[in-house]
Write a structure and sequence with these properties.
The chain is of the alpha/beta class. It is built from ten helices and 21 strands.
């Protein structure tokens, strides 16, 4: 694309989606389903995803089914079901993990991030994906919004959706800058071929919990691989990263006191990566005029409920719902409605993501109290998993 080119995205209602990760691609797919022409602009040279696994809960599985992805998710994902368990670090069983909605219909899957991005990528036409576009600034008037990119290109549309992550460039055009909040933890992650651990039970999600640290394991890639995530305290703020190499021996040493299922699994780890865990305090505003924030740009959350990607998918379908019958003149009001509805839910999910991590790590509670709380968290899981964002009456009531 030549420098200073203005991309006119069509004659019907149009959206420029900045960010080609899970949130951005889900937004483009949901908007297209609603009859809105969406183009995705990604700063990387190629659309893709580093990282390892992500849990897709029932609340977003039912939405992804509506994109026609049910068969693909079942084939590519790692189905998670009965036998999923919370354990104490010493091997004492605490409670089962809820892995479906209350009806038992919508299930949970572990997916490699790259696989999920690839599935969503297929939902967006090739000519509506523009890699190599790093957003630098935004301006808007009463009729249109425009994003300028580092390569000189300018995209003009009826709306701009900022799905550009926790370090969002476009957030500054909505609200005053705020610093990410360091959780005091780092996380090691990686994947293992299940042939390396043939004794590990298939198709289950496990949480192993000790004082100040815990381990989560679940299947990905049709159960052929296990995703592991190990959470540890950190004495000082660490760099956020998806690609900083970790030391497998240091990881093993940190969990040396855990029960044999964990220590034996970690013996098989040849390579791992770590990142510092950050979120943000809830934002007062998500929209300004024709610009709206989505996913981690709006509500970055800690991973302790496995809801980051799921809430971005919910955002995407909520956004599409409020815009489906909107005119170009209606867009700012529709975006404000989207933000009102979503904030009432994501504020709760953000707070509970923090508190659930403290629960896993027995912060300010005894192990016995922690165990009782985990049994009670079934109520929270049901609230998360039973919610159908497209059926939320608040989306249709201004």
């Amino acid at each position: 694309m030549c420098n200073n080119a203005v991309v006119l995205i069509g004659n019907k209602l149009t959206a420029a989606v900045v960010g080609g990760g899970i949130g951005g691609l889900a937004a483009a797919a949901a908007l297209a389903r609603a009859g809105i022409e969406a183009t995705v602009y990604e700063q990387a040279a190629e659309i893709g995803e580093v990282g390892a696994g992500v849990l897709i809960g029932p609340n977003s599985v039912r939405l992804l089914h509506r994109l026609g992805l049910a068969k693909a998710i079942d084939e590519i994902g790692g189905w998670v079901g009965e036998g999923s368990t919370y354990w104490r670090h010493d091997g004492a069983r605490v409670a089962p993990v809820m892995t479906t909605d209350s009806s038992g219909w919508a299930a949970m899957y572990g997916m490699h991030r790259a696989d999920l991005v690839d599935l969503l990528r297929r939902m967006v036409p090739d000519d509506h994906i523009k890699p190599g576009h790093r957003a630098v600034t935004l301006d808007q008037d009463v009729d249109k919004a425009r994003v300028t990119f580092a390569n000189g290109a300018v995209a003009e549309a009826d709306m701009v959706i900022a799905a550009d992550g926790i370090q969002s460039v476009l957030r500054q055009f909505v609200t005053e800058p705020t610093a990410p909040v360091f959780s005091g933890q780092i996380s090691y992650r990686g994947v293992l071929d299940t042939s390396r651990v043939p004794w590990w039970p298939a198709r289950i999600f496990q949480v192993w919990m000790g004082a100040g640290k815990h381990v989560i394991v679940f299947p990905v890639r049709a159960g052929r691989m296990l995703n592991f995530v190990c959470f540890l305290p950190a004495d000082q703020e660490q760099r956020e990263s998806w690609s900083a190499p970790g030391d497998p021996d240091a990881l093993r040493a940190a969990f040396a006191g855990f029960a044999p299922p964990v220590t034996e699994l970690l013996k098989q780890v040849d390579a791992t990566f770590w990142w510092g865990l950050y979120d943000r305090e809830p934002l007062a505003e998500w929209t300004k005029g024709r610009l709206a924030l989505l996913g981690d740009a709006a509500h970055p959350m800690l991973p302790h409920l496995g809801q980051g990607a799921n809430q971005a998918v919910e955002d995407s379908f909520a956004l599409a719902a409020v815009l489906k019958d909107a005119s170009a003149a209606d867009v700012p009001a529709a975006l404000r409605q989207y933000a009102r509805v979503r904030r009432s839910r994501t504020d709760i999910v953000q707070a509970n993501s923090r508190s659930n991590g403290e629960r896993y790590d027995t912060v300010n509670r005894t192990a016995e109290n922690r165990d009782r709380e985990l049994i009670d968290t079934r109520k929270l899981r049901a609230w998360l998993y039973d919610y159908d964002v497209e059926a939320d009456p608040a989306l249709t009531h201004q």
